[in-house]
Amino acid sequence: MSLMLLMFLCLLVVTCNATKDIFILAGQSNMVGQGGVYNRKWDGDVPKECKPSPSVLRLSAKLVWEEAREPLHRDIDVRKTCGIGPGLAFANEIVRMRGGGGRNVVGLVPCAVGGTRIEEWRKGAPLYNQLVKRSIKSVKNGGVIRALLWYQGESDTVREEDATIYKRRMKRFIMNIRSDLKLPNLLVIQVALASGQGKFTNMIRYAQLSIKLPNVMCVDAKGLRLEEDNLHLTSMSEVHLGIQLAHAYLASSNHHLNYTQIS
């Protein structure tokens, strides 16, 4: 037993000291993950694609790297019950596609908060500041931020005035976060909405799909199965989305680049 414990501790030390490919997870509830949440309780069912792996870490609310386990946002979005999101399926698919093993690990930085409008992510707002703080902390002990994964917009479908200027706000957010992280070429992979809280969902989807900025990609979630509330993705839909995001990242022309690290 003591030998097994020693081997586990050695593996944990090696993993935590390995070079990390870091991914920021931001947006609202479908990035947080509501898969398996019913009547404000998570059913605890973890799909095989979301199982823990020594090659996948997450940055906790206390800014400590630890083995990633569902729900990823459990100590980040504390106002709601968290369930399965796309993050772990995304990371595990990257590890699988790369063949696993080695000293290179995936580090996930959960930052999403449910029910938030894009205006709440403007430069200087608490959510924005928290995202920047956690992102900067994530590379302090080694690692490179490879991409920002963004799934947000459902709350902006309620009011026409929000939907009308969503594209402008999203482009400003991208430019601000790149500037503040000193990563001018940061890859941003956004998700086009599968659902919305209001009647202007198509306006938000059009805004998301029509953004033409360098190193900005869009994965379309339309058609993925929803929970009974017709707003949140099911656990398996989150898995499928995570895998789509991983394939989009691996297909990007710059996923292999060593971006300048934050100083």
Overview features:
single chain, about 260 residues, alpha/beta, 7-stranded mixed beta sheet, two-stranded antiparallel sheet, 8 helices, about 35% helix, disordered N terminus, disordered C terminus
What does this 3D model show about the protein?
The protein is of the alpha/beta class. Helices cover 35% and strands 17% of the residues. The protein contains eight helices and nine strands. It has helices at residues 2-17, 29-32, 87-98, 126-138, 160-164, 166-180, 201-210, 235-251; strands spanning 19-27, 37-38, 41-42, 56-59, 65-67, 104-110, 144-151, 187-192, 216-220. Strands 5-4-6-1-7-8-9 form a seven-stranded mixed beta sheet, with helices on both faces. Strands 2-3 form a two-stranded antiparallel ribbon. A hairpin with a 2-residue loop joins strand 2 (37-38) and strand 3 (41-42). It is globular, with a radius of gyration of 18 Å. Mean pLDDT is 91; it is low at 3-16 and 257-263.
